Structures are given as C-alpha cells and as structure tokens.
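name: query_chain
kind: protein
chains: 1
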Amino acid sequence: MAEFTTILDRLEVTMRLGIHPHEAVPQRVRLSVWMTVDYAAPPAADRIDEVLDYDFVRDGILALADGPGFYLQETLVEAVAALCLADPRVRAVRVRSMKPDVYPDAGVGCEIMRVR
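structure:
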C-alpha cells in the first residue's frame, strides 16, 4: 500500500458566498484541498492513469463557483469534500476556504477534515 497527499493549493475563484447584502455580488474565494490518497502500490510507470488526476477537483470547484452560490463557507467546504471523496482512493480530505476581502485587515475562512 502507498499513501500520498495530493494538494490543490489556493485556487482562486469568484463566486457568490455569504449572508450579508454586500455579499450578493460575487467575491474572491480561495480554496485549498489536501487529499490523502491510497494506492495499491507506488506509481511505477510514471503515468497519470496510475494516480489520482487532480483536474477533477479543480474542475468540480470551478463548476461550484459557476453555480448559484452558497450562503455559508461550511456548506461550500462540505460540497468540495464530497466531490473529493467521490473517488474511492481518497481516504481523507481537508478543505479550506478563505474570503480575503471581507475585512480590510483580515480574511475569514473555514476548514474541515473528512475521513472515510
């Protein structure tokens, strides 16, 4: 058995996320995803079909960002975690979202960890 951590770090999207009236317009959101991925053996042939292709995570997040939006960051990170866990090789996932523009002096975020 081989265990790897696949990381998608600080993907920035513009989306509707928030409960306040000023958040009714799309805003910047940064998402990071860490997936613990189990393989029967380490990749030997140096080919993408031996490992998890992280394009599906990026594409899934972009599709979520293009949707109607979310009120809560907690709901957003749950949706991203579910997307990742749809691949049976993903044993655990940690997802972080950050809204960098809510306050002039700090970003606000949410992070979850889900384990199969």
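note: Residues 73-85 form the longest helix (13 residues).
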